[in-house]
Amino acid sequence: MRLPQRIDRAAGGLxxxxxxxxxxxxxxLVTALTSTLLPHRAWGAVAAWGYLVAFLVAAGQWALHKxxxxxxxxxxxxxxxxLLPLVMQAVQRADGxxxxxxxxxxxxxxxxxxxxxxxxxxxxxxxxxxxxxxxxLLGYSPYQPGMSIFGLPRAAGDVWWTxxxxxxxxxxxxxxxxxxxxxxxxxxxxxxxxxxxxxxxCALTLATGGxxxxxxxxxxxxxxxxxxxxxxxxxxxxxxxxSLKLFAFPVLAVLLVLAFTHGSLRRFLPGALGxxxxxxxxxxxxxxxxxxxxxxxxxxxxxxxxxPAQSPFPGYLIAQALPGGRYVAAGLLVAVGLAIAxxxxxxxxxxxxxxxxxxxxxxxxxxxxxxxxxxxxxLYPLALLVWSSALTLREPTATTAPxxxxxxxxx
Length: 411
Description:
Layout lengths: L2 H7 L4 H21 L3 H27 L5 H25 L8 H16 L6 H6 L5 H4 L24 H19 L7 H7 L3 H9 L3 H16 L3 H12 L5 H14 L3 H33 L16 H8 L3 H22 L5 H18 L9 H13 L20
């Protein structure tokens, strides 16, 4: 057994649990004391106590030799470190605090309000240009039309339960609970679930912003459906994710190849392609150019204003430091995409865990090379890579390839 696996499984996984919660508690405390983002500080002030209790619980389970308690404990810890601070911020915001939500929450809620009143969640380029300079950035909605559904409740009034994060959390929880119920539930499922819920990269994101978490959870659900042969359900899960954000399309492409190798393409396609098309058509029919302006031009740096996403990854550094760097970074991104597409065709994944590895490594490469990116986007590849271990637990059947599928390692 390799050293990382030995460390992960020490004391039935409880040693690593205690270490992860201790590190998370320190991170939350530092965030509460030093972050320049007020929603982050508010999250840290609550989550630090939740992680401290989680550390003590993990240590107690270790002492009592009770690794079987790890899975239910993970859900409780998610509530303490994510859902509790989320609800607290939503309530405080409804009471008049203007510093209890990140900008993406406002953007999604504006999308819902515009959809309810105009039939499209997007502003045109002319309308964005007419806004005061300080408001032009918030005029952009760089999401798929389906994301506006989370903002629709806000059109009913400014109360805590109409906060878009509440509905992000509801969909995230529903998708993850369903995925866990589909898969076997031994202790080995705990680590993948932790990386999708309680660790700070996901907990902080959902509590303060949250739009990435339902997308991620639906992708994980789609993989779980594929692992259990439910390709119709997998298609609808990944189709729903693709209706929310473009980040889901690389996962959709990999699962499409997986469905093809299993002869399940006809079951997979209606949901996988039908849902994104159904959500896209109304926005394009009402004002197609506004969709292009918000979802394509703005992320590519051709909007009225530029995106503030500037994490110092290689793509961003290349775009800033080299003459014509943005085109160099874009060229590298396209080259990596073509290479992954080539390997998908030559060595297609035949099991869901290998598909998850394809998705994780591919998204990691894309995030590192994007000229405009955020540190928080790393939650996608990290969760997908760890989630692959949950998908290897299932025994092969007559319609699934054996767990020895090494497609990814023969690249």
